[in-house]
Amino acid sequence: MLSAISRAEFLFLVKKYYDVLIVALLFSIGVAFFVSKLAWRKVTSSRGHIPGRLGLPFIGETISFLSAMNSTRGCYDFVRRRRIWYGKWFKTRIFGKIHVFVPSTEGAKMIFSNDFVKFNKGYVKSLADCIGDKSVFCVPHEDHQRIRRLLSDPFSMNSLSSYIEKFDKMLSQKLKKLEQGGKSFAVLDFSMRMTFDAMCCMLMSVTDEPLLRQLDKDCIAVSNGLISVPVMIPGTRYYKGIKARRRLLETFKDMIAKRRSGKEWPEPEDFLQSMLRRDSYPPNEKLQDSEIMDNLMTLLISGQISSSAAMMWSVKFLDENQQVQDKLREEQLSIARSKPQGASVTLEDVNNMSYCWKVVKETLRMSNVVLWYPRVALGDCIEIKKGWHVNIDATCIHNDPDLYPDPFKFNPSRFDEMQKPYSFVPFGSGPRTCMGINMGKTTMMVFLHRLTTDVNTKLIILIFISITGSQFHHLLPLLFCRWTVDDPDTGLEKNTHLPRLRSGCPITLTALNC
Ligand code: HEM
Predict the structure, then answer these.
(1) CA distance 240 to 224
(2) What would the pLDDT profile of 160-199 be if each residue is shown by its tens digit?
(3) Same domain membership, residue 151 and residue 27
(4) How many angstroms does the Cα of residue 439 sit away from the middle of ligand 1?
(5) Which regions span the lipid bilayer (predicted)?
(6) What SS3 state is found at 401?
(7) 379 falls within a domain
(8) What's residue 18's pLDDT?
(9) Which of 384, 401, 422, 472 is paired with 153 by a 20 to 30 Å CA distance?
(10) Is-above-0.90 flag for pTM?
(11) Is residue 27 part of a domain?
(12) How confident is the model over 12-41, as pLDDT tens digits?
C-alpha cells in the first residue's frame, strides 16, 4: 500500500489531514484504554468490585486461615468456604496482606502473561529465610532470568534420559523388596524417599545412605518451615527450618570445597560439578556459591515434595477407579512386553505411554498439589491495588464444571480432547513455569509403570500365557501386581500447604490375584 503512493504524496496527505489523524489517534488510544478496562472488569467481577471481608487491620481473617491449616480438611477449606459465601472472586486479609483469589482462566491468563511486568511472585518472609533469598523462587526479575537459564542443565533431554533410567532401576529394586516382604507401607514415605534419593544422585552424586537420610531430614524441616511464623522460638517449625538450613549449608560448603580441591570429581558430571566448572566464566555466565547452595536446596525440595504428593494421589485415585487402573495396566504391559526382560524404562518408552500421561494429568488436575500460585500486584490494576496479593486459584479452575464436566470424577479420558488455554495449569505458566515439569511428569509415569507391571512372577506368568494360548491375553492385566489401600481415611495432613493424606496412603502389594 505504501509503495502505491509516493513519499511526497504521503507527506501532502499528512499535512492536509493532520488534525483528522490526531483525532483518530486519540480516539484509538481511548478505545484501547476502554477495552482493556472492560476486559479486566470482566476478569474480576461483573459488579465492579471484589466481595469479601478484610476484618481488623493486620489480623483480618488470619485466625480462620490458620484454623483451616490446622484441620484435616486442609487449608483450601478456607478458600472453599469463602467461595460459597461471596462467589468465585473474593478478597480477604491474611497476616496483614490483602489477598484476592483469582478463579478464572481469563484471570490466570492476565496474571501469568504479565509476570514481572504487572505482577511479581508473592512469598512470605519465612520462605525466603528458610530456602534462601538467592533461590529462583525469591530473586528479582534481573537475577531470575540468569539463574533460571543456568539451572537448566539437569532438565535437558540428555539429563532427563539418564535420570529416568537411574530412577527406574532404584524404583524397581525397592518395589520388589516391598512386594516380597508383603508388608503394608505408606506410599507417601516411599515416594518421598525415592524422589529425594534420585534428585540427590542427579544433582550431587550423593548415594551414601546415612548422608542421604540426614539431608532428607533437613530438607523436610526446611520445607515445613517455608510457611510459618518467622520468630526464632525453639521447637517451632520456623526455628527447626532455619537450623536445618544452616546444617544443609555446611554440608554443601564442605562438598564444594572438596570438589574445588580435587578430592572429589564425579563421573559423569553432575549438576553441582557443572556449576563449579563455570568458576572462571564471566559473572553473568555463572552462579555465586550462595546462589548454587540456595538453588540446590530449592531443586531438592521442589523436586521432592510435589512429585511425591502427586505419586501418592495417583495410587489413591487408581485404587478407587479399577477400570482406569486396568486400562493403564494394559498399556503398561504392552510396553513391558515389547522390551527384553529386566530392561530399564527409557525416555522413548515414556513417550509411548499416552494413556499413562492422561492418568498423570487427571491426577494433577484432581489433587492440585500446588493449590494456588501467589503473585503481588506491582501497580494499581482497576480493582486490584498496588501491593495486594493475587492468588491464581488453580484448584478452582481445575474443578470448574464448565471446563471439566463432572469435575470430581477421575476420568483420564477427558484429556482425549484439547484443553482450553489456561484451563490446565498444574505446573503454572509463563516465565515462572515449573522448571521440573518434564522430570515431575516422567517420575510419575515411571512409577506408575513399575507399580502396574512389576512382579517377580512376571516370567512365570508370561510362560503360562504362552503355553495356554493367546486367547488368555486379556487376563494378563488381572494377573499382575495389584495393591490394596489399607487405610480409607481421607483426612489431610495438618499444617502444610500441600494437600497430602495424613495416613500417607498405606498399601500392600500383591503379586498375584489368582
Ligand atoms: C508433579 C510434580 C510437580 C508439580 C505439580 C510442580 C508444580 C510447580 C508449580 C505449580 C510451580 C509454580 C509456578 C508459579 O508460581 O507460577 C513450580 C515451580 C517450580 N518447580 Fe515445580 N512441580 C513439580 C515438580 C518439580 C520438579 C521435579 C522440580 C525440580 C527438580 C521442580 C522445580 C521447580 C522450580 C525450580 C520452580 C520455580 C520456577 C520459577 O520460579 O522460575 N518442580 N512447580
Answers:
(1) 9
(2) 999 999 999 999 989 888 877 778 999 999 999 999 999 9
(3) no
(4) 10
(5) 20-40
(6) coil
(7) no
(8) 77
(9) 422
(10) no
(11) yes
(12) 777 777 777 787 888 877 776 565 555 554
pLDDT at 134: 97
Domain, as residue range, for 10 = 1-44
Confidence at residue 457, expressed as pLDDT on a 0 to 100 scale: 44
3-state secondary structure 124-189: CHHHHHHHCCCCCCCCCHHHHHHHHHHCCHHHCHHHHHHHHHHHHHHHHHHHHHHHHHCCCEEHHH
* Domain contains 430: no
**CA quadruple 226, 227, 232, 234: dihedral sign:** negative
What percentage of the chain reaches a pLDDT higher than 70? Answer: 89
Closest atom, ligand 1, to C-alpha of 425:
10
CATH number, domain containing residue 225:
1.10.630.10
Q: Looking at residue 309, what is its pLDDT?
A: 98
For residue 14, what pLDDT is reported?
72
Query: Which pLDDT does position 463 carry in this prediction?
Result: 47
Question: Which atom belonging to ligand 1 lies closest to the Cα atom of 364?
Answer: 5
Cα angle, residue 510 at apex, residues 509 and 514 outer, rounded to 5°: 165
Rounded Cα gap, residues 171 and 167, in angstroms: 6
Give me the residue label for grid cell 495486594: 388
Average pLDDT (391-406) is 97
Question: Could you tell me which residues are annotated as the binding site?
Answer: 434
Cα 434 to middle of ligand 1, angstroms: 3
Q: Given the CA of residue 154, which atom of ligand 1 is nearest to it?
A: 30
Bind-site residues for heme = 434
Question: From atom 19 of ligand 1, which residue's Cα is the shortest distance away?
Answer: 434
Does residue 474 share a domain with residue 337?
yes
How many A from CA of 93 to the centre of ligand 1? 26
Cβ neighbourhood burial of 161 (10 Å; 0-12, 13-18, 19+): middle
* 428 domain residue, yes or no: no
Of residues 167, 175, 166, the one with CA closest to residue 453? 175
464 to 226, 340, 461, 469, 512: CA distances (angstroms): 53, 18, 5, 8, 13
So what's the pLDDT on residue 44? 45
Cα–ligand 1 centroid distance for 427 (angstroms): 6
Residue 227: burial class (beta carbons within 10 Å; 0-12, 13-18, 19+): buried
Bigger pLDDT: 14 vs 144: 144
Q: How confident is the model at residue 263 (pLDDT cuts 50, 70, 90)?
A: confident
The string of DSSP letters for 179-217 reads HHHT--EEHHHHHHHHHHHHHHHHHH----HHHHHHHHH
List residues near ligand 1 (CB under 6 A).
136-137, 148, 298-299, 302-303, 306-307, 310, 364, 369-370, 373, 426-428, 432, 434-436, 439-440
Instruction: Share the mean pLDDT of the chain.
Output: 89
388-416 mean pLDDT: 97
Residue 459 has pLDDT above 50, yes or no: no
**Residue whose CA lies nearest to ligand 1 atom number 15:** 373
